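Collaboration report, partner site 2.

Our partner group contributed sequences for two proteins of shared interest, and the home lab folded both. The records are reproduced in the order in which they were received, starting with the first partner submission.
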Amino acid sequence: MDEVFSAISLLYIHPLKSNLSHDFITSKFNPDDLAFCDEILCKVSRSFAAVIRQLPPTLLVDVLIFYLVLRALDTVEDDMTYFTSNETKVKVLQSFHKTALLDPKWKMMGCGEGDERRLLEEFPKCHSVYAALPEGSRRVISDITQRMATGMAEFVDKDLGQGTTDISQYNRYCHFVAGLVGEGLSRLFSVSGLEEPSLATELYLSDQMGLFLQKTNIIRDYLEDYVDGRAFWPQSVWKKYSLSGDLGYFAEPTALDATNAGLHCLNELVTDALELVPDCLAYLSKLRCSEVFRFCAIPQVMAIATLDKCYHNPNVFTGVVKIRKGMSCLLINNTTDILGVHGIFHKFANSIMKKAQSVRKGGFADPSFDRTMKACSTIIELTEAETKKGFTQKSLVNSSIVAVSCAAGCLTTYISPGVSKTSTVTTAALASFGMYSMLQMMGWPRKFIMSGSASTSLMPASELCKDE
């Protein structure tokens, strides 16, 4: 029921509001080029478009262009047939920050597929918007693009058909393609003035935020990546469990040994990702702008929910594992403050822990069990205080809402005389449920919890700008 309320609320009552039409933006950038950037963002990003659009006007376009530039770079890296040789591809990657970001007419024809190809072919429109960004933002975008491209070039000649070689290389790859994104975003947040200058120096925590998201994607995309011949599960992990010595061993649906071995490997990799959560929570606690917080928190809670879905799930080896849309809406609605985010991490850490305990009682001997329990226990301990506070406050508010709803139901029956006792009870119940549902969808519980909570120091961008 909560998922239904959340979906309706997010779609019709409290949608993520786009700030692209703000005067600050429309007066600064070419409207046609900006419209293209917005359109192509929605086409190439299945998950980030909405959270980018809700960012404050002084930061929104900077992050939007940062994403598109890196998506264009990623398209170049991903195309395995466009270049005549790896040497040529390496040269294009290493010069990308100069050609794409310094030449206003630069574009690449025929590389990539679908909307990603169109992004490269119409890149001058992105460059037009990039060129109008503040110098500080352009410097960050150029620096991260250069370093990411250098890292990507390092992996061009590596045979990834059987994954990365070990945890070190696995982490290194994730750093280049995601950790650097975290660093770049932290620097953009600071340059915008919406976050403290010190956030730009939180390189380790920024890197861990990116690694958590990337590792989750790699775990979930096992089958797709293996089929594409470009996988990232570390050999030092999966070779402990694959009897055939091949990464595809786990995808043999009729072999019980293969399934169990795959689950051993999967659970170890999920646990490896869970161990990043304390640093992710530490990073989120340093944010002060509510819109920036939500931008950072939404992907993180989606990741922990995805890990919960993947843990000990054999479907990872036969298809794509996704969380329900209703659950996604519920998660988004609960990312308005640190209290809600802690509650989400607490919930899914508990869920994974219970799964681990359950399968062990069922006779499944998981080599990573103790490590998994420790990782989950750490998350639960870190989030326990805020979760209890949120549960207590929400219970009080919900009790109040129920009382108001019942009163509304009774009032309805009072002003409808002449009906039977059964009809009176039914009418009162329906009116009470209707009132309760309406208040839930309007977000009243969270509004009261937030207004009465001292656990958050988040402020909207408008208030932060007013202070400065």
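Second partner submission, folded after the first:
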Amino acid sequence: MGTLEARILATNKTSLDLLKSVRDLELENSTLRNYIVDLKARVAVYVPMKDDPIDARVAEYINNFPDRNKLKIMFMRDSAGVYTFGTKKVKVEVNQGKIQIRVGGGYLSIDEFLDQHTPAELQKLERKDPLKKFSEKVAL
């Protein structure tokens, strides 16, 4: 009876060790999955033009923006320092490492510019949407 008990005890210990290993691997798997999701979220959305420091700074800002869902309208580079934002052409400069957008006779930081101009640009784009126009005409 002593050898049978010893074998059962050894089997139980092995089972517990295997169970602990499975739990550790599940935790590692979960950690890796979260890491992959985080990496996918950081994939570059905007790739800058080579040898253009302003475009590189704009790309860095866009690609590191904390909530990309808030970036509803993208900056499209036209030429060095000139971008299209929705329907608007804007002049972009970098002063002391900060992105500045020329507005009227002065400048706004990129954050201020986005806060002030995104809603109006979204409305303009919505008005131009052919599917929306069609659905409004068809709706009873």
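Feedback sent to the partner group on the second submission included the following. The first helix runs from residue 2 to 41. The chain has four helices and five strands.
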